[in-house]
Amino acid sequence: MDHFWIAVFTSLTLVAWVSSSQVVLESKPCDSSGQCTWNWILETKTGPGIVGWTRRSGAAIRYTVCDVDLHPSAPQPSSWLLSDQLIIANDTNRIDITVEYLIRSCSHLPPNNSGGAYCVNFFYLYVNQSDHYILDKALYPNPLLNTAAYENVARIGRLINVKTLETIKILNKGKYLLLAFHNDGACNSLYSVKVTYYVCPGGPLVNDNSLVSLARTVAPANDSQSIRVEGSCGKDTVHVAGSLYVHCQSNGEWNTSGLKGKCICKEDMQNVGGKCQACPDGKYNDQNGLNCTVLPSAPRNINFTFINQSSVEISWLPPAITVIRRNCSMTSIVASLVTIMKIISVLMTLAGVMSITYHIRKV
Ligand SMILES: *[C@@H]1O[C@H](CO)[C@@H](O)[C@H](O)[C@H]1NC(C)=O
Ligand SMILES: *[C@@H]1O[C@H](CO)[C@@H](O)[C@H](O)[C@H]1NC(C)=O
Ligand SMILES: *[C@@H]1O[C@H](CO)[C@@H](O)[C@H](O)[C@H]1NC(C)=O
Ligand SMILES: *[C@@H]1O[C@H](CO)[C@@H](O)[C@H](O)[C@H]1NC(C)=O
Ligand SMILES: *[C@@H]1O[C@H](CO)[C@@H](O)[C@H](O)[C@H]1NC(C)=O
Ligand SMILES: *[C@@H]1O[C@H](CO)[C@@H](O)[C@H](O)[C@H]1NC(C)=O
Ligand SMILES: *[C@@H]1O[C@H](CO)[C@@H](O)[C@H](O)[C@H]1NC(C)=O
Ligand SMILES: *[C@@H]1O[C@H](CO)[C@@H](O)[C@H](O)[C@H]1NC(C)=O
């Protein structure tokens, strides 16, 4: 039952973190909510002077092992630290395992600054990737008896005598993942283990004025396989010119260098931080992709220079207030005036009045 709840909890956390571009599958000793537990399985080949991986609590939970100063006639140490079986989302391409460790250099260890017969300055990460869920942890394959069940994926020990973070990238090969850290002579500590994968986030592109919206896409294993995804115009937007293809990169970022088109806010809305919001009162936007501006005022000094039953010719001075800001097209002004002309001609024909009040309507 215990395992069942762990499984459920893992899938829930998975859902909770999808908005970020890195999904956390496992984080030891502490998860994102600050809850700290770390109780993994230990398998140690017994022998004189051998202690194997040891869980340390106190200020911070960690695992250490330091079986050095062994006599050459003693067997070589072999100690395993096994994770719980982790559930891997079926669409995951690459899994990143980030470990924080410290290895003490053999040349500082007894006897005679050698660490003894078996001392080494590295340890190993093995994995078992399978589609088989094992409910009872006691039934996890025992690496001491069945080494073939685990695949060696990394020798860890880039730096010694200093706390180091190292990320091992593996391709996903199954629904479940078991990590197995193997020590065969090093004196080292393991401070943290984090298992993650990258996702290009769904929703509108962030830090981009294009307003293009994308479907959440699991990142490819590497950039030579970057995934081409077609964006769409989000809520309250309209597509203008060009295709909306972008690429999902292995680091969970959208590469928009191929993006040709864009989306603009519908009429009477403007782009505020990537979302279209209604124009404030008294302002208006004619779907030109810019911000809301002040309404055009009435044209001044309108003269009807020619009138018959089917036509009216009007001349005017430009409005006192123009909608135009820099770069703005003439469309909004012309469109407004055309409407005004229509209204006036209708009123003219209906009433034949000389004094006309007119109304401005958006077009
Ligand atoms: C992954 O799982 C989901 C539901 O759990 C399923 O709809 C989808 O087809 C699966 N995808 C693959 C590639 O197996
Ligand atoms: C350490 O070095 C000393 C002198 O060099 C030697 O006598 C001794 O046997 C060495 N001890 C071990 C355990 O190698
Ligand atoms: C991983 O462990 C399972 C048992 O849970 C075993 O059946 C499988 O063969 C192992 N994978 C490999 C690659 O040996
Ligand atoms: C990226 O993927 C391609 C195709 O699968 C492969 O040939 C290449 O070796 C990979 N590159 C790296 C750095 O993993
Ligand atoms: C984005 O993709 C283009 C090719 O489409 C590539 O040349 C460029 O290096 C990529 N940008 C980044 C930051 O990877
Ligand atoms: C639109 O308004 C926002 C703030 O409301 C501003 O940051 C942005 O620069 C404006 N864009 C243009 C094209 O004026
Ligand atoms: C009104 O004037 C226009 C332009 O001069 C002309 O084409 C049209 O035939 C005239 N309509 C009438 C009913 O006279
Ligand atoms: C319209 O006519 C009035 C007087 O008839 C004149 O003062 C004004 O300049 C004319 N306006 C235009 C734009 O021609």
UniProtKB/TrEMBL annotation:
Gene Ontology MF term list: ATP binding
Top-level taxon of origin: Eukaryota
Keywords: ATP-binding, Membrane, Nucleotide-binding, Receptor, Signal, Transmembrane, Transmembrane helix
Membrane topology: Single-pass membrane protein
UniProt key word Calcium: no
Intracellular or extracellular location(s): Membrane
Domain Eph LBD, chain residue ranges per copy: 2-205
Leader peptide range in chain numbering: 1-20
Chief place of localization: membrane
Pfam families: Ephrin_lbd
GO cellular component: plasma membrane
Record field: transmembrane: 333-358
PANTHER family in the cross-refs: EPH RECEPTOR A5 (PTHR46877), RECEPTOR PROTEIN-TYROSINE KINASE (PTHR46877:SF14)
Protein name (record): Eph LBD domain-containing protein
